[in-house]
């Protein structure tokens, strides 16, 4: 499935606060396989292809640890081009003995881990879209045990060093404080389709018939508070629109439902009802 094609809206970049930039850079380069695109004393832009920013990590001067039971990042998810790529990552993580989880979601196979600050990461590959099961606009997903032995059969002999150049930011999964206003914001405001609502206290939304571009859950508790801006965790994520007209339509929809929207230094910012910040980009 082509994610980077009109008229789809997709996640392009995720920005995170971390406590120690050098420690995080070591992790994201050596464990995940990112390359550094740009770097300053307190910020680094990370890429898989040497030109496209996927993840930005920043160390605020007054940074505080990740706050429990708050809204924000559950995980960001890196989509690899091929199943063999996921096999190579799994082999690498086993070799360096990094703690991971793993799941088979029917539509995809996924590995899960945390960075040194507890920011959640998913690394996954999709099964062919032709194998996904849809009924009444909803896609079937589940959380089952990953067949790691079968996956590892596709791993190559070479040592894993960097993410494949075709790696994308496949989706983002967020903690939110409630689901009713959240569904209104993402569906009626941003224009995403609700494609799965079978998981307890969770919704999954997408455009273009993808299994999900954004996951939303209240697993940190209904009424969870928004963390301080200097807390470890999500700063913002970027949604990429196919053109200015598509963004204009969404801005009108957001205004209609009374959502937060403002422009800062030429960047259009919105916030969902739980305070998760989104850059609306073309």
TrEMBL record:
<feature type="domain" description="VOC">
    <location>
        <begin position="168"/>
        <end position="282"/>
    </location>
</feature>
<feature type="domain" description="VOC">
    <location>
        <begin position="10"/>
        <end position="126"/>
    </location>
</feature>
<dbReference type="Pfam" id="PF00903">
    <property type="entry name" value="Glyoxalase"/>
</dbReference>
<dbReference type="InterPro" id="IPR004360">
    <property type="entry name" value="Glyas_Fos-R_dOase_dom"/>
</dbReference>
<dbReference type="InterPro" id="IPR029068">
    <property type="entry name" value="Glyas_Bleomycin-R_OHBP_Dase"/>
</dbReference>
<dbReference type="InterPro" id="IPR037523">
    <property type="entry name" value="VOC_core"/>
</dbReference>
<protein>
    <submittedName>
        <fullName>Glyoxalase</fullName>
    </submittedName>
</protein>
